[in-house]
Amino acid sequence: MLLSLFFTFLKIGFVSFGGGYSMIPVIEYEIKEHGWLTAQQFTDIIAVAGMSPGPIATNIAVFVGYKVGGPLGAVTSLVAISMPSLLIVFIICLFFNKVKNQQFVHSAFYGLRPVITGLVTYAAIKVAIQNQIITSFSNFHFDTIGVLFIVIGFLLLVLTKISPVSIILLSGVFGIIIYY
Amino acid sequence: MTNKKALIKLWLIFFTFFKISPISFGGGYAMIPLLEKAVTKKNRWVKKEDISDVLVVAQTVPGSIAVNTATFVGYQVAGIPGALAATLGIITPTFVIILIFATLFLNFQHNPIIQAAFVGIRPAIVALILYAAYKIGLTAMIDKLTTIIALISLMLFLFLPVHPIIILIFGGVTGVLLSFRRSVHKTKTYSHSKGSSVTGD
Description:
The complex is a heterodimer. By secondary structure, chain A is mainly α.
């Protein structure tokens, strides 16, 4: 159990480009493969991870580790997801002057960033489907209040300076008002 | 004596990042100004004109920008022990906090009020992820080619049932090849038609 947690998050640590949200579908895929959590449990973990300070992918890893393997699982996941970037930073430090501002890094990110954009968009669609806010594309249905929450939340984030944490807290309050 | 000095230095590195860590909501971008101040003004570990280079590299490497910056600065100040001290310093507080949050959540998740709150929070999470995509998209989709790569990869993620890492790597490599080609030929349409077939394999 601890071993498979370790190798799962080690693998994820190596590819976590573009901020924590891009890793959501990757972590989700692994969780499904191992049968660790249900989709809804995973969304709630994203929510809690988003409310806490710290990198979101690391927070998700720690929470998943804790849920699956207790405190030891949490530490295992933390070490596993942190190790790759530590190693890579070491390597880059050794060659720093040669790497910075190089055309190669530039070109790599020219191609990688749009793929990450696709990945994160996919993450959003997937989470919406799994929480029955929208159904899959064949026979399309949606939950009106849920979609309204998404649209308002998104517009607030784009148009105002409101922080993501406040969005989570606000939507929680409205959730209580509407559904309790 | 020198041993003691080195230990004090490591402790200072650890504690500097330990203090900044709890403020790093949402992946660390919010704490960058604080981080900058701590390593350039308060401690003079990095020169002010060098910090932007550090941040670029920290963003380029996989992992969170906050942790990467800490590791990087720690290394420059005191080598590998410094990097470890800095990394531990920035990771420990948020690790403890997420554990507390996790325990609280697991204890109260069946409470009806908490459940109602989470029915509201779940779509908000979708909005947050969409917003993350939007922000990355602004820097990523800078021309026709990158927009097409983004759309193709979204379709692949949605409809190709393989591990997302495979698509990520495939797409990344395709992008690199394309951008090399682009800088050589400067003909976008040609490199695009080539690229989509590579990605689709």
